[in-house]
Amino acid sequence: MNKSNIKYSITDILGQFDLETMGTPFIIFDPRIMVQNVEFIRDRLPQAQLFYSTKANSLPFTLKAMLAKNMGFEINTAEELKRLKSADIVDSSRIINSSMVSSASDIRALVNHGVNQFCIDRYSLIENLATNAPGVNVFIRIKVPEQGSKFSF
């Protein structure tokens, strides 16, 4: 596995929080481990285009660590787009939307930024995209049978 040249101390990470008012417990993400996990997946799926779910953790140091590993970003709202922009991630070709429910205003904001990849899994989303984002590229989420599966899809 490749060594990451991204260096963050626990002080850098804790500096992102107001520990005086923060309740417990809380989670600290180590970007070095996140990068190792990306490398692990990428080593096993070299042809895959990987996207980081911004809603999972949108702290700037996390987003920048994912950008350094050439990750794409999956967002659902204009707020998540704003978080990417605040981390200087503005290349719309690296951003997709896979929300099961997106408001018309969120879709318009994403399209205005240049986001061109949207997921659909119901008819109402087709109508929403046709009205607010004509001409975008669409990928389809398909519900699969769950019989025999250990996980609910």
Kindly summarize this structure in a few lines.
The chain is of the alpha/beta class and 153 residues long. It contains six helices and five strands.
Please explain how this structure is put together:
This protein has helices at 10-14, 31-44, 60-68, 78-86, 104-113, 123-132; strands spanning 51-53, 72-75, 95-97, 117-120, 137-140. It has 153 residues and is of the alpha/beta class. Helix 4 (78-86) links the parallel strand 2 and strand 3 (95-97). The radius of gyration is 18 Å and the shape is globular. The two termini are 31 Å apart. The mean pLDDT is 86.
Oligomer: single chain
Q: Biggest sheet, open or closed, and with what strands and sense? A: 3 strands, parallel
**Low-pLDDT segments, ≥5 res:** none
The shape, in one word, is globular
Q: How large a portion of the residues is in β-strands, by DSSP E?
A: 5-15%
Q: How far is the first residue's CA from the last residue's CA?
A: 31 Å
Structural class: alpha/beta
| Total beta strands | 5
What is the spatial order of strands in the main beta sheet? 1-2-3
The helix count comes to 6
Give the fraction of residues assigned to helices: 25-40%
The pLDDT mean sits at: 86
Q: Over all CA atoms, what is the radius of gyration?
A: 18 Å
Instruction: Spell the H/E element sequence.
Output: HHEHEHEHEHE
